[in-house]
TrEMBL record:
Family: Belongs to the TRAFAC class translation factor GTPase superfamily. Classic translation factor GTPase family. EF-Tu/EF-1A subfamily.
Lineage: Eukaryota, Metazoa, Chordata, Craniata, Vertebrata
UniProt name for this protein: Tr-type G domain-containing protein
Region spans: Disordered: 1-20
Alphabetical UniProt keywords: GTP-binding, Nucleotide-binding
Length: 608
């Protein structure tokens, strides 16, 4: 474990710097947070961080006490349980798997209060055998992540084991995580994804990335300009499932119990609006920032880091192309990244992953502590350290728990439209994310708003997730929906498909509390900016700055915006990001001025 991580989270008495609005070298920073809220968040982070860590100590080593909720279970030993005890243990395992959406972590040799007692070799073997039988009973698979020795007693060496249990829930196909891929142009993003998803190393001239490109000009220039999606699967035993053994995406989905969906975004500055749309609209769970070892932090790297932090997307870093550089050059790039991550505006704790043990620790702590930023150094040509990244993806847990998803599923259906296609013999198809509720084949929804603020009725045909058929779509999942003969010209990106019972708030004008991150001059009334709020991307004009004549870099204010083209569906509290040239700012929606209740289009009412 990195010493700096232990120093930062080891003691709760040390003061932490306030997470403040700062510029990562004058570009982007985190939003303002109150000292009280920040102290509370850091306290939680410290508590979560120590979980699952084997902490060597001169005294008796320990973990935090076991939590009743969550997917982590402590067991001192599981040697020859009675039939009644075995049934109880199997039921307990089902509960932990449900809490982790199909994944659970068992710590063997640990008491409920967190003390690392350890087991003899014979007891450990018997406990792992019992755990295997329990997993068989509930239809799951187990993988021993690592075994470590605790302080030796007079009885001889004793060890503890960390075991991953994985089972696909009966009511879903697989556990799905979305990872946005960021980084400067020519940093090796698409090549890395090609190597991970195709299972073949690159030849040093970009062969691995060719299957990812969607347009001829992308193949000719080698630069991504659009958003593409790639999938990497893991089966219940933790083995990689990709196109090297599977011919189609359907085969990968059938044999995988965990799926990583990569959202490949553009690195060039002229495609920045596409990159921002991918981050705001597709709701990624994590962001992977790819940095070239030979160029270091260059171009849009700092800006992409700031974007992810402004939108509060947890980020980890991959330093690519290490085969082109000397070890000294790679270490210089790592130090450069560490300096940027430690700046007050970033306030991150870098953790360089050097071996499998580091990768396991990084995966668990990364999802639990917002401060930890794992750093991988690898090569897509030689394959150096590529396995560590795969271990990280295999173990990384979902951000939300089952309770949060259940609460969202109880709400009315709301699907955000991000992509629109016309497919031969299928008709109109829309792609996007189900924000709340449940969506089934044959459901009747309404889509809008149109330029006039109306909604159109439609019926869902078929549903596909990761290019394989799916009957039921749940909150938080991304999918494509077939709409049959519905007129494509009535649709646009930024629309929503909602339940007819919902009363969506449609507005031309809204108010937001914003912070101006960077501006060359002053931000004033009448200024036009491109606003990004979820899947909404539209130009808006500043109608009013409350209490101020103009805003300068770093200042905060309540601002009233008005869309200039058509009304949009918004929610109070939604995160927003606005830009115009070098002008950039972040904030959240505080008040809406609705244009009245939504209406189904007159044409459809006449035809009814």
């Amino acid at each position: 474990m990195d010493a700096r991580v232990s120093d930062l989270f080891g003691s709760g008495n040390e003061p932490r710097p306030q997470q403040q609005l700062g510029a990562c070298n004058g570009k982007f920073g985190l939003g303002l947070a109150s000292k009280k809220a920040n102290a509370k968040a850091n306290k939680k982070a410290r508590a979560r961080f120590s979980r699952n860590n084997f902490r060597p100590s001169n005294n008796t080593p320990y973990l935090p006490p076991e939590a009743e909720e969550g997917n982590i279970e402590y067991k001192l030993k599981l040697v020859n349980p009675t039939q009644y005890r075995f049934e109880h243990l199997a039921t307990q395992m089902k509960w932990r798997l449900q809490e982790g959406k199909g994944e659970a972590v068992y710590q063997i040799g640990v008491e409920d209060n967190g003390m690392l007692v350890g087991l003899t070799e014979e007891d450990m073997r018997a406990s792992l055998k019992t755990l295997h039988l329990m997993a068989q009973k509930v239809g799951a698979d187990i993988t021993v992540l690592r075994q470590s020795e605790v302080d030796e007693d007079s009885d001889g060496p004793r060890s503890i084991a960390e075991v991953l249990i994985r089972k696909v829930p009966d009511d879903q196909q697989f556990l799905d995580l979305r990872v946005a891929v960021l980084g400067n142009v020519d940093s090796g993003k698409s090549t890395l994804l090609g190597v991970l998803t195709q299972g073949e190393l690159d030849n040093g001239r970009g062969r691995a990335r060719l299957n990812l490109f969607r347009h001829l000009h992308e193949i000719q220039t080698g630069r991504t300009s659009s958003i593409s999606f790639e999938i990497l699967g893991f089966n219940s035993k933790g083995e990689v499932v990709n196109y090297s053994e599977s011919r189609t995406a359907e085969e990968i989905c059938e044999s995988a119990s965990k799926m990583i969906t990569f959202i490949d975004l553009a690195g060039h500055h002229k495609y920045l609006k596409t990159t921002i749309f991918g981050l705001t609209s597709y709701c990624p769970d994590f962001a992977m920032l790819v940095v070239s070892a030979n160029t270091g932090i260059a171009g849009t790297t700092r800006e992409h880091l700031g974007l992810a932090m402004a939108l509060k997307v947890p980020i980890f870093i991959v330093i690519s192309k290490v085969d082109l550089c000397t070890r000294a050059t790679v270490e210089r790039t790592v130090r450069q990244l560490e300096r940027v991550l430690k700046q007050p505006g970033c306030n991150k704790v870098p953790m360089v992953v050097a071996n499998k043990d580091d990768a396991v620790t990084a995966a668990q702590q990364f999802a639990q502590s917002p401060n930890i930023t794992p750093i991988f150094t690898l090569s897509s040509v030689s394959g150096e350290s590529l396995d560590l990244l795969k271990v990280f993806f295999n173990i990384i847990p979902p951000l939300s728990n089952s309770k949060e998803q259940e609460e969202l599923m109880q709400q009315l259906t709301e699907f955000q439209v991000d992509e629109i296609y016309s497919v031969p013999e299928v008709g109109t198809v829309v792609g996007g994310t189900l924000y709340s509720g449940i969506c089934r084949e044959g459901d009747d929804l309404v889509v809008g708003p149109t330029d006039a603020g109306h909604f159109h009725k439609l019926t869902i045909g078929s549903i596909q997730r990761n290019r394989s058929a799916c009957r039921v779509l749940k909150a938080g999942q991304a999918a494509t929906l077939a709409l049959g003969e519905f007129d494509r010209s009535l649709l646009r990106k930024g629309m929503v498909m909602v339940s007819p019972e919902m009363d969506p708030t449609i507005c031309w004008t809204f108010e937001a509390e914003v912070v101006l991150l960077f501006h060359a001059k002053t931000f004033h009334k009448g200024f036009q900016v491109t606003v990004h709020i979820g899947n909404v991307r539209q130009t808006a004009i500043v109608e009013e700055l409350y209490g101020k004549e103009a805003l300068k870099t770093g200042e905060k204010a309540e601002v009233r915006f008005r869309f200039i083209k058509h009304p949009e569906y918004l929610k109070v509290g939604a995160k927003m990001l606005f830009r115009e040239g070098v002008t950039k700012g972040i904030g959240h929606v505080t008040k809406l001025q609705p244009i009245g209740q939504y209406k189904v289009s007159q044409r459809e009412e006449d035809g009814a």
